[in-house]
UniProtKB/TrEMBL annotation, chain A:
<dbReference type="Pfam" id="PF14403">
    <property type="entry name" value="CP_ATPgrasp_2"/>
</dbReference>
<protein>
    <recommendedName>
        <fullName>Circularly permuted ATP-grasp type 2 domain-containing protein</fullName>
    </recommendedName>
</protein>
<dbReference type="InterPro" id="IPR016450">
    <property type="entry name" value="UCP005522"/>
</dbReference>
<feature type="domain" description="Circularly permuted ATP-grasp type 2">
    <location>
        <begin position="85"/>
        <end position="463"/>
    </location>
</feature>
<dbReference type="InterPro" id="IPR051680">
    <property type="entry name" value="ATP-dep_Glu-Cys_Ligase-2"/>
</dbReference>
<dbReference type="InterPro" id="IPR025841">
    <property type="entry name" value="CP_ATPgrasp_2"/>
</dbReference>
UniProtKB/TrEMBL annotation, chain B:
<protein>
    <recommendedName>
        <fullName>DUF403 domain-containing protein</fullName>
    </recommendedName>
</protein>
<dbReference type="InterPro" id="IPR051680">
    <property type="entry name" value="ATP-dep_Glu-Cys_Ligase-2"/>
</dbReference>
<feature type="domain" description="DUF403">
    <location>
        <begin position="1"/>
        <end position="313"/>
    </location>
</feature>
<dbReference type="Pfam" id="PF04168">
    <property type="entry name" value="Alpha-E"/>
</dbReference>
<dbReference type="InterPro" id="IPR007296">
    <property type="entry name" value="DUF403"/>
</dbReference>
Length: 487, 315
């Protein structure tokens, strides 16, 4: 373990086994971080404790909280935010951005194909089973043409930096990826706390997300509409992402609606306003497929709008993202991404895929069962970091449990080598010092008709528990402001 | 604007206003009773009952003894007590939450700060010696909120809806105070040296409505029943008067209903009617039968509220 002389980082312990983003191979501070490192070094850790408290208060007052339910009453908590930002230089960012667009476009073409001619299956590039056995494949979407030809308007691509210094995609989220509001809040909080540091770096803004989102949503308006009426639909204020829904509606300047505010008449969608019904053309929906329309999907859903899907099929309203996109962010489809990109775009993947073993294939299943201790086992259709087992953290008994689960439903599991996520100096409240913590990065890509946008920044998520590799907020993760530097 | 959200904003306005009036009522009654001129007004039981009466939970049993700390806690910080200040603030914030995308960040952050202040107030300190600090803070924070409403919102129909809520609630609360203090003045009548029309309770009432100083300036006399009622009910320049609230409600309904000639079934028509009735009234007509006046105006206000619901919030 090595320590440094910098005042704030004086007790920072570096584990040479881990890939620390702010140090180079020779143990020197990376050039992009050196100025930041010195600037932070001017403060003592005591100053920092105060700043940290201030930042927390700012989140509380802005009401950027989520609900925690315990026995007696619900309490509000803030997402832990770290004041030491992550910096991505322009060259690296270029790879991430191009890679994210490439994947989103390929996924969009893939979705069109599997809901229409299924050429990729007929040509034997991906197996039929991949789709027919997926719970997220919607038969109702077969043959439906989404306005503008776009399925995954908004994608959240999760990438990590591996020991080899390269970026790997962990997963594509193309249902209702969340987190973008935290990117913007993190920037605001860091500016409030340490505005001085921004003078030393030329950082891209992140506040342009909403205007770009609105522009792109307007490009996929239904036919025959001049200026579309865009709304955001939320499950309601008790949803954990409600802050984000209201933030997006407010910054786009559009209405935030709930299912009960909308109704369908003659296959057109209207909202109930104080001046009577008003037609709605584009719906950015933050409700899962199963709940959008009780007539078509879950009949007991009170979050959706009866008749919405019929209006959508008629082409009278745009839903973003389109129903049925979940089939393509399945972790089993993920493993075919290099082939999917090659097939539709005739390009080599820009971002690396992590090698994945399919438990549905007998030879790979055998390998997985024999090597569980060095693999990560993931259920293919769970989100939020649930159900993941990390082989080298399991006891012998637990390994047996996992093995049995896999044997029971092999289709449900994939396995990947345990990747070593890079680490980043993170302030830990309990010890009042900086420690190494694993990080990943969620990027946000928006596809419109013939246009796309990638938010220059992203949500760097930190696993706050020492040694933990799972960064999801539902698993006790925090986040950092992420600076993409200008060229 | 969505009907559902309009309804929430209307109630946000009402709950904010309500919490302020309850806070001031607690404060003024408690502290002015400490050195009140007559024994009854000075009695703790009398004051606590008056507080419960005002929030809408009167103690019917004359012989029952109410516990001071319990009553203060209930009305201030008890989340299980439907009329408490903390619940009003909670509801206000919940309503604001659902309309966060429509109101300004500044207004929302202030509501949120207000909520965290009330939520984190130490209940023990409050009942022991924090009543003044707590209630003054509540009143001040609501004043900030009114400032943020006026100063940071677009003065469009959203603002009009919120202000309708604020003003209908203000009128309602002022009447509740009048009712409560009128009852107190009747009860205190028999005690030494205090007749109904010159009762000490009128001064307390004016202070509860934050109108004492201005009333003194206007009449240059010690408050009596008739001057107090005239000031608080009919004086259009007193910002807390019923007349002023009705005038404001009328101004705001005009934003929502822009028709030149109001439909007789509309809210705007009803508001105009009620307003006209009080605009051309002698205080003597009211003073002879205060109880009927209180019942009439309360039912008019609730009728306006119901009409609004039907016309604008029906979803």
């Amino acid at each position: 373990m090595e320590t440094t002389e910098n005042q704030m980082f004086s007790s920072y312990q570096r584990n040479p086994e881990l890939f620390d983003e702010i140090y180079d191979k020779d143990g020197k501070i990376m050039s992009v971080y050196s100025e930041l490192f010195d600037l932070y070094g001017e403060h003592s850790i005591k100053d920092y404790v105060k700043l940290n408290d201030k930042a927390k208060a700012s989140f509380f007052n802005q009401g950027i909280t989520f609900q925690v339910y315990d026995k007696k009453e619900t309490r509000e908590k803030i997402f832990p935010f770290d004041l030491f930002p992550r910096i991505i230089d322009p060259q690296e960012w270029d790879i991430i951005e191009r890679g994210a667009i490439q994947r989103s476009k390929a996924l969009n073409l893939f979705l069109w194909d599997i809901y229409h001619d299924k050429k990729i299956i007929k040509q034997g590039i991906v197996p039929m089973d991949l789709i027919s056995s997926s719970a997220n494949y919607l038969d109702q979407m077969v043959g439906v043409d989404p306005p503008g030809g776009i399925y995954n308007h908004i994608s959240g691509t999760d990438v990590i930096k591996h020991k080899d210094g390269k970026y790997y995609v962990l997963e594509d989220n193309i249902r209702c990826p969340s987190g973008v509001s935290y990117v913007i809040c993190n920037r605001t909080a860091l500016k409030r706390a340490l505005f001085g540091v921004f003078n030393h770096y030329k950082t891209h803004t992140v506040t342009n997300y909403a205007e770009n989102l609105l522009d792109l949503l307007e490009t996929v308006k239904p036919k025959g509409v001049d200026v579309p009426n865009v709304v955001v639909i939320t499950p309601g204020m008790f949803n954990s992402a409600f802050y984000e829904h209201s933030y997006l509606a407010k910054t786009m300047g559009v209405e935030l609606v709930e299912g009960r505010d909308l109704f369908v008449e003659n296959d057109f969608v209207y909202m109930k306003t104080i001046r009577g019904p008003e037609k709605v053309d584009v719906i950015y929906r933050r409700i899962d497929d199963a709940f959008i329309d009780p007539l078509e999907f879950k009949p007991d859903s009170s979050l959706g709008v009866p008749g919405l899907f019929a209006a959508y099929k008629k082409g009278n309203v745009t839903l973003a993202n389109a129903p049925g996109t979940g089939v393509a962010d399945d972790k089993a489809v993920y493993t075919y991404m290099p082939q999917i990109i090659k097939y539709y775009l005739n390009e080599e993947p820009i971002l690396n895929n992590v090698h994945t073993y399919h438990c549905s294939r007998p030879d790979e299943l055998k390998y997985v069962l024999e090597h569980i201790h060095e693999l990560v086992i993931k259920p293919v259709d769970e989100a939020g970091g649930y159900g993941i087992s990390i082989g080298n953290r399991l006891t012998k008994e637990e390994i047996e449990v996992v093995k049995n689960q896999i044997k029971e439903t092999p289709r449900k599991y994939v396995a990947q080598p345990i990747l070593s996520l890079s680490v980043h100096p993170t302030y830990i409240e309990d010890t009042e010092s900086f420690e190494q913590r694993h990080v990943d990065l969620r990027t946000f890509t928006v596809l419109g008709k013939d246009r796309e946008f990638v938010l220059k920044g992203g949500l760097t998520r930190v696993a706050l528990k020492r040694g933990n590799l799972i960064v999801n907020s539902s698993q006790g993760g925090g986040s950092k402001d992420t600076w993409v530097l200008k060229k | 604007m969505l009907s559902r959200v309009a309804n929430n904003l209307f109630w946000m306005g009402r709950y904010i206003e309500r919490s302020e009036h309850i806070a001031r009522y607690l404060n003024v009654n408690y502290f002015s009773s400490l050195d009140a001129p007559n024994q009854l007004s000075q009695s703790r039981q009398f004051v606590l009952r008056s507080m419960l009466f005002m929030v809408g939970d009167p103690v019917e049993d004359e012989s029952a003894i109410v516990d001071e700390e319990k009553v203060l806690y209930q009305i201030g910080l008890d989340t299980t007590y439907p009329f408490s200040i903390i619940n009003n603030v909670k509801y206000a914030r919940e309503n604001a939450n659902s309309a966060r995308d429509l109101i300004s960040t500044e207004l929302y952050e202030s509501i949120n700060k207000f909520y965290h202040f009330v939520l984190n107030y130490d209940a023990n300190a409050y009942v022991k010696n924090g009543l003044h600090d707590f209630t003054v803070h509540v009143a001040e924070m609501t004043a900030i909120l009114r400032g943020k409403m006026r100063g940071t919102l677009l003065h469009d129909e959203i603002y009009a809806i919120i202000m309708m809520g604020v003003n209908i609630e203000r009128a309602t609360q002022i009447i509740r105070m009048i009712n409560s203090k009128h009852t107190d003045a009747l009860r205190a009548q028999g005690s030494y040296g205090d007749k109904f029309s010159n009762s000490f309770e009128w001064t307390t009432l004016l202070k509860c409505a934050e109108s004492y100083d201005m009333m003194r300036r206007f009449y240059k006399k010690t408050p009596t029943s008739i001057s107090t009622l005239e000031f608080l009910i009919l004086n259009p320049n007193c910002p807390r008067s019923i007349m002023n609230s009705l005038n404001q409600v009328y101004e705001h309904i005009k934003v929502l209903d822009t028709s030149k000639k109001y439909n007789k079934e509309s809210t705007a028509f009803l508001v105009g009617r009620v307003r006209a009735e009080y605009q051309f009234k002698y205080i003597k007509e009211i003073e002879t039968d205060i109880q009927s006046f209180i019942e009439d105006i309360l039912s008019s206000l609730s009728e306006i509220s119901q009409k609004m619901e039907k016309e604008f919030f029906n979803y």
